[in-house]
Amino acid sequence: MPTVDRPQHKSAALPLALAYGALIVYASLYPFADWRDQGIAPWAYLSAPWPKYWTGFDFAVNVAGYVPFGFLCALAVLRTGRAAGVWPAVLRATVAGAAVSFAMETLQSYLPARIPSNVDLGLNTAGAIVGAVLAAGLERLGAVAHWSRARSQWFAEDSRGALVLLALWPFALLFPAAVTFGLGQVFERLEVAISEWLLDTPFIDWLPLRQFELEPLVPAVELLCVMLGALVPCLLGYLVARSVVQRAVLLPLTLLSGIAASALSAALSYGPEHAWAWLGLPVQVGMAAALFAGVLLLFAPRRLCAALLLMGLVLQLSLLNQAPESAYFAQTLATWEQGRFIRFHGLAQWLGWVWPYAVMVYVVAALSRRGRSGAAPTS
């Protein structure tokens, strides 16, 4: 099939593929401990016989785990417009999936807790092929071009960073937080971790002593943190939405995605019957306040939205990190860190910790770009 020159785009598919690749690395190499040379060639698994114990669940997980990666890689190639046809994009995505799987299985040879498998390698590669073919099919049907046009109509030209952060926000909320929508509460854990690292070293004396005791949040402050936590992603969407109409659509969709993610997190932590237990009065009022503020800011200039976003983030992080984690919340974390979510908790936890700071960096970088318009979006 002849190749077709396409205009180059800054697609969100590439950073999403990289983010998903990081997820694969984490899931494949966890718990990242007890690395050792086990006295065999790291690629010896390639000639190993078919495993004695194998289940349909293992088969499905190994295939399904690489389908999004193959899909995003093929989509990234198709969206770059570098004269790549559909099938060359499928080939590149397949090679990328196979290469990542080979690297992960090979590195597992150095982890006693993990077992490398040639069957996993084959199934991972098959999953990447399925995802890449799915992307190719959507390209043939014109869905990719339709999304490109829709994105150009809805979002500003350089919007992929914000779109990636918005897509990651619900996943960041999956790890249970002490305060609803309260991402980035790291001060207490960071303080303990640094103390443990410096223990029995001369540098422990350099660690500054905290001059105040961490106090639990009063309901009014919790309400404010909930409001700010819900409003920040809405303002992030406002920065890249082209018009007030798009903002008016993004506002409820963003809030609903946060509600759904919080309900799923509660269901995973406490059971399905407690999926809505987190929706207390302070949370309800805080969400209503965020919705009200979002409506008021529909016509606000982008620079004002960016400034309010940064101020809201700084205020929320300051309040959250002056409060301790409750004992009940610590017990919930133990369920994730030692129980059924042990392979997932670390990635979700880091995402919840890092997300607000990544948003802050993105917005500061966006504000620093020359020629950025401060006018209000068109209606």
Search tags:
379 residues, mainly alpha, 65% helix, globular
Describe the structure in brief.
This protein is mainly alpha-helical and 379 residues long. It has helices at residues 13-29, 56-64, 67-80, 86-107, 118-140, 143-154, 160-172, 187-198, 219-240, 244-270, 281-296, 302-320, 327-338, 342-368. 65% of the residues lie in helices and 0% in strands.
Topology:
Elements: H1 13-29, H2 56-64, H3 67-80, H4 86-107, H5 118-140, H6 143-154, H7 160-172, H8 187-198, H9 219-240, H10 244-270, H11 281-296, H12 302-320, H13 327-338, H14 342-368
Domain VanZ-like: 27-135
Protein name: VanZ family protein
Keywords: Membrane, Transmembrane, Transmembrane helix
Count of domains: 2
Mean pLDDT: 81
Order of helices and strands: HHHHHHHHHHHHHH
Structural class: mainly alpha
Cα Rg:
23 Å
Transmembrane segments: 12-33, 53-78, 90-111, 123-141, 162-183, 217-241, 248-270, 276-299, 306-324, 344-365
Pfam families: VanZ
Organism: Variovorax guangxiensis
Protein name: VanZ family protein
Description:
Residues 1-7 and 336-342 have low confidence and may be disordered. This protein is globular. 65% of the residues lie in helices and 0% in strands. It has 14 helices and no strands. With 379 residues, it is an all-alpha fold. Helix 4 (86-107) packs antiparallel against helix 5 (118-140) and helix 7 (160-172) packs parallel to helix 10. The chain folds into 2 domains: 13-154, no CATH class; 165-368, no CATH class. InterPro entries: VanZ-like. It comes from Variovorax guangxiensis. This is VanZ family protein. Residues 27-135 form the VanZ-like domain. The chain crosses the membrane at residues 12-33, 53-78, 90-111, 123-141, 162-183, 217-241, 248-270, 276-299, 306-324, 344-365.
